[in-house]
Amino acid sequence: MVDVCIIGSGAGASPIAYELANAGFSVVVLEKGENYSESDFNKDELAVCRRDMFTPPLWEQKHIINEYNEDGTFTRYDGAESGWNFWNGSMVGGSSNLMSGYFHRMKPNDFRLKSVYGEIKGANVVDWPLSYEELEPYYTKVEQVVGVSGKVVEHKFQEPRSTADFPYPPLQTNGATKWYDKACKALGYDVMPTPRAILSEDSLNRKGCFYSNFCGSYGCASAAKGSGRAALLQKCKAKIITDAFVYRLESDNKRVTRAYYYTKHGVRHSVKAKIFVLAAQAIESSRLLLNSKNEYFPNGLANSSGEVGKNLIFSAGGSGSGRFVFEKLSKEQQEELMQPGVFFNRSLQDWYEFSEDGQKYKGGTIDFLFEHQNIIPRVMQEVYDSEGNLLWGEELAKNIHKRMTTSRVLTFEVFNDWLPTDRCFVSVDENVKDTYGVPVGVINLYGHPQDLKVGEHLAKKALKVLEELGCEEIDYSISASPPPNLVAGGCRFGEDAKTSVLDKNCKAHDLENLYVSDASFMPTGGSVPYTWTIYANSFRVADAIKEQLKSIKNQS
Amino acid sequence: MTTFSRRKFLAAGFLSSAVFLMDGCSLFGVTTPIDTIKVLHRDLFPKAAELNIITAPYMHIIFHHSRISKSDKKFIKNGVKWLNEEAIKMHKNSYVKLSSLKRQGVLRSIAKTEWGESFLYNIMGYMFEAMLGDPIYGGNNKEAGWRWLAFSGGEPRPKKAFL
After folding, report:
1. Which residues of A touch B155 (CB under 8 A)?
2. Would you tell me which of A54, A106, A334, B93 could form a disulfide with B97, CB atoms 3.0–4.6 Å apart?
3. Do the Cβ atoms of A43 and B149 come within 8 Å?
4. Whole-angstrom Cα distance, residue A553 to residue B1?
5. DSSP B93
6. What does the pLDDT look like over B59-71, one tens digit per residue?
7. Residues of A near B (CB-CB distance < 8 A)?
8. Over the stretch A83-137, which tens digit does the pLDDT of each residue have?
9. In sequence order, which ranges of A123-274 are alpha helices (DSSP H)?
10. ipTM of this model?
């Protein structure tokens, strides 16, 4: 029997493996996907982005998606038939390998949304059982151990820090950021460099960023990106078992006793451990608990509250863009604009909280970045003319050439709270099985109207920057469409075992030895990408598990 | 091994297997997807040939690809059939046997239909994959597609094609 068995290997799993293995405990990590190293990663657009090599084919593994309609009905989508893909990286290190690493901490008020901003009709907003001050040391630990580069600048919503600045200086940026900084100054906006989970220089036995021009969606060949694999799993002696799809956790009335997994050839194995940690990403973690029902837990493991799968959240918001065109730029500016590799890295948090019509709203974050450099989608955008007719031949070639060689698109992404509601949750469909023969997860989707209202407010602020910059073709879209890579909730933590699945330390209220350490624990998500908070919380949970293991050792 | 070879043979045959073209209720003729796609690629994007890039053979990779679904493969084959049937309906001959002018007319005609628009979009997607994907896939001849657009592929480059 091992001390700890971890299901999943991403941002929620890897800090626990790292901390416990380095403290001398025996740790087994079960990962459905393959293990890669830096030398395996390349920038093959066809393999990574067109053929989705790091996620399962949808005809083998899919979700059922029920989208809520205005009239109270749901529209059902079969993931394989519709191509609606909620996988984010089935590999050792999970989707942290493929993230862009836009790292923002949550703010103190994010931990007490209900107390500060009040009830919201139709939403299940609650305060966290944890404060920012309690999590702060772990945010700092992530900066140092995983590696975060950036520069702290004072602004209205700068969260308190125990250290003055980031341990690594900001990454190099494109010359166009100077124009952005000037535009923000003219608008009275606070300029803020975006912190990134990317090393700007060689450190931690990893290389600094190579500025390959292809970061998000791709594995990092320099190991500069702070994936759970590069930063943590490769630096500990946890045993990693790949091709291990955990389909059931076995338990008695108090303890999980065994994790059962299948290989892709259908061979069944199991692992016994003193403590089990579930971190398969929010949707799959809830699915596994619901699929693990037994005589003691007839509604799903750790589900005496009936809350497993409930209050699933994503990141609300959307995106927008504007195009810099050569006609409006000097020769020198044109060269600066087209400089490849270096980042844009600018964020706005001026409206993390705002008031409208006498009401105080929780706002969010806006990140500015260049359009992804993948060339095929950029070219494919040109196959329609402005009236929506297909183009081909000489005219298409002329358009493509002009757009690719004499302009560049600046985009922005809006992150605001996706309010938790009764209509957005995970369930399972007993009648639809994946390639392993296991019931698939059902994603029930609903976006609260306030999410759209706040997103609109933020997007309009971002548009002003693009206008001030003289961009053309300025456009944006705020919608209730969920970003599959920004998902949380389903096993919220709380003090009350009747209304939450996990306790403050992310241990199941119902079981003595089951922890859930991915983003499932989050009752609300803050208005930032989740990864930094997942890492920080997982380091915190690792400390709690360490204490429990020491106590088990002392008892025996 | 025998099974694998047999399957490989069947897959290889997909692009050169017969597509039966119907004129109303009667059989008009027979073509193969690859014959039509060769001409179609040239009609849709003659710039590729100017750059010495040949895109049609890449469709063999697509038809063999472990990550392209059976229904996507079938859609392309059906699209080839429908394109030819539209050519027969308009000009009483299969697509490849028409003059360039008439082929453009057929393309304009099908682009107005839902299936035709979808088919052409689909075909162009794969065509640009061939032209602008890594040269290891055989299309982007000496990076001519990238050079045309002053684009640098990301480093490191793949050492083998993902099939």
Report:
1. 43, 210, 212, 221
2. B93
3. no
4. 54
5. S
6. 999 999 999 999 9
7. 41-47, 50-53, 57-59, 210, 212-214, 218, 221, 338, 340, 373, 375-376, 379-380, 383, 389-390, 392-394, 396-397, 400-401, 404-405
8. 999 999 999 999 999 999 999 999 999 999 999 999 999 999 999 999 999 999 9
9. 132-142, 176-187, 228-231
10. 0.94
